[in-house]
């Protein structure tokens, strides 16, 4: 029965967190707060990339080369979709080799 209470408590907490975002959306942030929030997407992407590279050390080389292929596709095209497709295509091709 304790697992049910933990799940319900977590559900209420997540709902309250999401609801607070809607309720506070009309407010304004300080200038420093807006500057900090500009780096959230870059920090999130960096965390995903580093955790993906470190997840399986045996696949480090194909993942690193796929990362470079995705970065090259992003640099040349500027499109996020081509970056993802280029990186995934390179990763699967390198895994087949």
Low-confidence stretches: none
- Radius of gyration of CA atoms, rounded to a whole number: 20 Å
Helix fraction by DSSP (H/I, runs of at least 4): over 70%
Number of domains: 2
Q: What structural class do helix, strand and pairing data support?
A: mainly alpha
| Beta strand % | under 5%
- Terminal CA distance reads 50 Å
The tally of helices reads 5
Shape: flat
The mean pLDDT is 86
In total, the number of strands is 0
Characterize the main sheet: none
> What's the SSE pattern?
HHHHH
Helix and strand arrangement:
Blueprint: H1 2-23, H2 31-37, H3 40-55, H4 60-77, H5 80-96
Helix pairs in contact: 3-4, 4-5
Describe the protein in words:
- This protein is mainly α and 97 residues long.
- The protein has 2 domains: 1-38; 39-97, no CATH class.
- The protein has 5 helices and no strands.
- It has helices at 2-23, 31-37, 40-55, 60-77, 80-96.
- Helix 3 (40-55) packs antiparallel against helix 4 and helix 4 (60-77) packs antiparallel against helix 5.
- It is flat.
- The model has no long low-confidence stretch (mean pLDDT 86).
Pick out its properties.
mainly alpha, 2 domains, 5 helices, 97 residues
Brief digest:
It contains five helices and no strands. The protein has 97 residues and is mainly α.
């Amino acid at each position: 029965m304790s697992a049910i209470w933990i799940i319900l408590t977590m559900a209420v907490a997540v709902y309250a967190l999401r609801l607070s975002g809607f309720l506070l959306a009309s407010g304004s942030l300080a200038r420093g707060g807006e500057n900090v929030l500009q780096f959230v997407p870059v920090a999130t992407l960096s965390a995903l990339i580093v955790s993906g590279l470190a997840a399986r050390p045996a696949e480090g080389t194909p993942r690193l080369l796929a990362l470079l292929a995705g970065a090259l596709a992003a640099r040349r095209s500027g499109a996020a979709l081509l970056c993802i497709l280029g990186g995934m295509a390179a990763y699967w091709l390198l895994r087949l080799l």
